[in-house]
Write a structure and sequence with these properties.
heterotrimer; A mainly alpha (about 260); B alpha/beta (about 400); C mainly alpha (about 270); A: about 260 residues; mainly alpha; MetI-like fold; 12 helices; globular; B: about 400 residues; alpha/beta; D-Maltodextrin-Binding Protein, domain 2; 18 helices; about 10% strand
Chain lengths: ~260, ~400, ~270
């Protein structure tokens, strides 16, 4: 057995090698760039860039907007996916195929969706068009994950609970939720991951590098500094963001451990 | 039983379509997209040739290709590539040719992404030849010579003295408002032509406004001035093919068809770069054409013409740096002695008294100034939205000010 | 009554979700009804019926088929290789015990969250130094090692019953064989799901192709359609429809197997 466990570790090597080369190395490079004054003079300035970025009101605005996206849009996404999965569960036969519709947004090129979105939400002044775009695009994946989790639930628990008199809302709250919670937390994490990738949709929707204040997220901040040859701000912002994300992830993982039955 | 069968046939059909799709795509593998215009960009240039990137090859002076050291100028397929190459410190290209009205130019100067040219004597010699403002534009605050100017472009009004006198158009003392009023009163019978590229200088009005007043901290009178002009732009800014009255000939060249029709021309909005092309030779040959600055925005607010300077900046990380420096010194030596019209116009102390039009343009160029513009997303997008009727004036101003603040402070 | 309500809500939602796709398909058969450059539809229904978009795209600009093939090649190879690398890694994460495993997994999650702007330039530099720019490797190599699939697969694998493994150990000592013959068949559904998602993600990739590739002959169709240079709006719409077809076929083909056989898995 021990040999087996040791050998298992070897399986990690290809992935580790590639991740180190194409993800860790760039990240280290980014940290290095965040510590120098200028891409061209390469003078070491330590945390000066971090101070500058952190004190910048637009970075704080971008940070706030990105966090709001996570805190508002992701829960809405997860709840919507959960409800839709529940409803889909009750379908039998050909009605099950309805599920196909929800995965389509993820497969379709963004530009097509944005055209429709801009027509629908013409003149809207709130964050919700972008939030809805985010939810629209990613709900399919979460529905599939949650449906898979639902299908592992054994029917007899429900039978027993129904015999005891539980039904409807209470039934789901006391039985389904606890059993599903590991998956739920998992989907929340996936939602957070995808919330960082929503830049392309937002950029196409607003059509400018300077969107309204409420939608100016970290990626805009980083993108704009890239084109201003200001890679230092981008790097510092990226490192700071990854540290904040690390905190979120740690909290999430701890929660998931606590809930695993 | 039947259900299972239909499921299997469905799968079979999907598989069939999948294979057809792959074949369809597969024959695409035999296709080749059209030849890219810049083989040098893609496959690299030979060992002894230098590679330069530019947004637009049109403004490159021909002398770039006449030195002993060979150089090739290419336009990247993707303009964002130049930013990436700069940031990544790529060494496979040797210089860039840019213009002062692109934001990349200001960013290169600000971040020091250039190779200082102070030690190359030919460069200093060339700069001495130019007008003061061009020399200043090439010098950074810390004294570095960061670029080599190789062209300048200034907008102006090209007009016929006699015809304008006939119609009472006095360009010397005119505001834009007066200009628009007077043009409206001109006869549109097709006998006399006048021409402006973007509908009565509407693009130049906003450029000039940016140059003179800027968009931040606008006073009420400045706001009403801008509003006044933008209202007029909404009226006049109609595309060519709608055949509106300010473009009397159906093609620009009609007015150039014969000497007779040229002599009946009233005015034309021009840029000094175009005047060095062969199609403009007639303007110099036929007597009576003059040039003057664009009308003022306001009574008594005189301001120099806004010049765009085209220049070369060396890639500090170039793999062929020595070769590039050699090329640059050869180029500067050539340009310093060059007697072609564009370079004479850029130089101090030249004399064109033999030709009134040339003298006029020379004066304009020598009295111009270089100013930086904002990227399109910051100001241009809002202006365009207003002109298309998508937002009102006050919103436009607020948005522009917001964008400028963001651009400067983010 | 309740069932009817549920059904109608679902159908309504499904229609809403399909709306953009339907509109794209419908408008691809119409005369120009999309406000170019403004990304807006000028009217809900197209004004006429014409195949001009398809004709222009497939006859005049036939070479875009090369880009279509590139997309198929990239998405297909990336997905297969990604799974080939991620399945062993996920297996290792779920089975092996070693110091720092949690920490390593944590790093994987963190790297997964990096927005593209961050890794784009350093990877450009890395690929340039490896002389891989403007080759298919520039696109394929970084994507193969994307941590997302490792993360997904680990979660699925954590639910594996140890008894299976112990039983398998009695028969063979090779970890590889255990993995391939015992575990993978049970996880076939999950792997298929990951396959579809990864394929979709790289089928639609734009930014990497833009920056890492220069030659037109190497570029995937996704970028071409996103920028739409040299193509009219109708062509872009027609292209989008053709572009959607493979991914839809892929999903429909595997859609039922995504459902089946997860009973023994715990998430």
């Amino acid at each position: 057995m021990k040999k087996y466990l040791l050998k298992c570790r070897l399986l990690l090597i290809p992935s580790l090698f590639g991740v180190a080369l194409f993800y860790v190395l760039p990240y280290v490079r980014v940290i290095y760039y965040s510590l120098i004054e200028n891409q061209f003079s390469r003078k070491f300035v330590g945390v000066q860039n971090y101070e500058k970025v952190f004190q910048n009101e637009y970075f704080r605005l971008a940070l706030k907007n990105s966090l709001l996206l996570i805190v508002i849009a992701v829960p809405v996404l997860v709840v919507a996916a959960f409800l839709l999965s529940l409803l889909l569960l009750k379908m039998k036969g050909y009605w099950k195929l309805l599920r196909i519709a929800f995965i389509f947004p993820m497969l379709v090129p963004t530009a097509s969706v944005v055209v429709v979105w801009r027509t629908l939400f013409d003149g809207s002044e709130s964050v919700w068009p972008v939030y809805l775009l985010f939810i629209y695009k990613n709900i399919g994946l979460l529905i599939i994950l949650l449906s898979a989790a639902f299908s592992t639930l054994e029917g007899d628990i429900y039978e027993a609970a129904r015999l005891d008199g539980a039904c409807g809302f209470v039934l789901h709250r006391k039985i389904t939720l606890p059993l599903i919670s590991p998956t739920l937390l998992f989907t929340v994490l996936i939602g957070v991951v995808y919330s960082f990738k929503v830049f392309r949709e937002s950029y196409l929707y607003f059509g400018t590098s300077y969107p309204p204040d409420h939608s100016y997220t970290l990626q805009y901040y980083m993108n704009n500094h890239f084109y201003k040859l200001n890679y230092q701000n981008l790097a510092s912002a990226a490192v700071m963001t990854s540290l904040i994300v690390a905190v979120i992830v740690v909290v999430g993982v701890r929660l998931q451990k606590k809930f695993t039955v | 039983m039947k259900g299972k069968k239909t499921k299997k046939t469905k799968k079979k059909w999907l598989a069939v379509w999948g294979v057809i799709g792959l074949l369809f795509a597969g024959c695409g593998k035999t296709q080749t997209p059209p030849e890219t215009q810049n083989p040098g960009e893609v496959t690299g240039v030979p060992e002894d040739t230098l590679l330069g990137y530019t947004y637009s090859k049109i403004y490159a002076p021909y002398q770039l290709g006449t030195c002993d050291v060979k150089a090739e100028l290419v336009e990247p397929e993707d303009s964002e590539l130049m930013v990436t190459k700069l940031l990544a410190g790529d060494s496979d290209y040797d210089f860039m040719m840019l213009s002062t009205d692109s934001s990349l130019a200001t960013d290169i100067l600000r971040t020091g992404a250039y190779y200082a040219l102070n030690e190359i004597p030919e460069v200093a010699g060339l700069l001495d030849r130019y007008h003061d403002y061009i020399k200043e534009a090439a010098t950074a605050e810390n004294g570095d010579i960061w670029m080599i100017p190789c062209g300048v472009n200034v907008p102006f009004v090209l007009y016929r003295e006699d015809v304008c006198e006939e119609f009472g158009l006095d360009f010397d003392n005119m505001t834009y408002t007066e200009f628009l009023e007077q043009v409206e009163a001109l006869p549109k019978n097709g006998e006399h032509t006048f021409f402006t590229p973007y509908g009565l200088m509407t693009g130049d009005i906003t450029s000039k406004f940016e140059q003179v007043y800027g968009y931040e901290n606008m006073s009420e009178s400045e706001k009403s001035l801008l509003r006044n002009y933008m209202e007029k732009m909404r009226v006049y800014d109609v595309p060519f093919n709608e055949g509106k009255w300010w473009f009397l000939s159906s093609e620009k060249t009609v007015s150039h068809l014969s000497e007779e029709s040229m002599k009946k021309m009233i005015f034309e909005l021009e840029r000094s770069d175009n005047m060095t092309l062969s199609i403009s030779l007639d303007f110099f040959r036929i007597d009576g054409f003059r040039a003057i600055e664009l009308p003022d925005l306001e009574e008594g607010v005189d301001c120099p013409s806004g010049a765009t300077v085209y220049f070369i900046v060396i890639n500090p990380k170039s793999a062929k740096l020595e070769q590039t420096i050699e090329y640059v010194s050869q180029l500067c030596e050539k340009l310093q002695k060059d007697t072609s019209l564009p370079f004479r116009w850029m130089s101090r102390g030249e004399d064109f008294s033999d030709n009134a039009l040339r003298q006029d343009i020379y004066r304009l160029i020598s009295e111009a100034e270089v100013y930086a513009t904002y990227p399109y997303d910051v100001v241009g997008a809002e202006l365009m939205a207003y002109r298309e009727g998508k937002q009102d004036f006050d919103t436009m101003i607020t948005e522009i000010q917001r964008n400028i603040k963001m651009y400067k402070e983010e | 009554m309740k069932k009817f309500l549920v059904k109608s809500v679902l159908v309504l939602c499904a229609l809403l979700f399909l709306l953009p796709i339907l509109l794209t398909v419908v408008h691809s058969f119409g005369t120009q009804s999309v406000d170019e450059g403004n990304f807006r539809l000028t009217s809900l229904m197209p004004s006429g019926f014409s195949l001009v978009g398809y004709y222009d795209l497939l006859i005049e600009h036939f070479y875009v088929l090369r880009n279509f093939w590139n997309s198929v090649f990239y998405a297909g190879s990336i997905t297969c290789l990604n799974i080939a690398v991620s399945v062993p890694a996920a297996y290792a994460f779920s089975q092996a015990k070693f110091k720092g495993k949690e920490l390593l997994f944590f790093f994987y999650i963190m790297l997964m969250m990096m927005p593209l702007q961050v890794t784009l330039l350093p990877n450009y530099i890395g690929l340039r130094d490896m002389k891989l720019l403007d080759t298919p490797f520039a696109i394929v190599l970084p994507s193969i090692f994307a941590p997302f699939s490792v993360f997904l697969l680990t979660q699925y694998m954590k639910g594996l019953e140890q008894s299976y493994v112990e039983a398998a150990l009695l028969e063979t000592k090779s970890v590889f064989r255990i993995m391939l013959q015992m575990i993978v068949p049970q996880l076939r559904t999950c792997i298929l799901a990951v396959f579809v998602f990864v394929f979709a993600e790289y089928w639609n990739m734009v930014e990497q192709a833009d920056i890492y590739l220069k030659r037109e002959t190497l570029k995937p169709l996704s970028g071409l359609l996103a920028i739409g240079e040299g193509l009219t709006t109708s062509e872009v719409l027609a292209g989008s429809v053709i572009f959607m077809i493979p991914i839809v076929i892929l999903y429909l083909y595997f859609h039922d197997s995504l459902e089946v056989g997860l009973e023994s898995m715990k998430l």
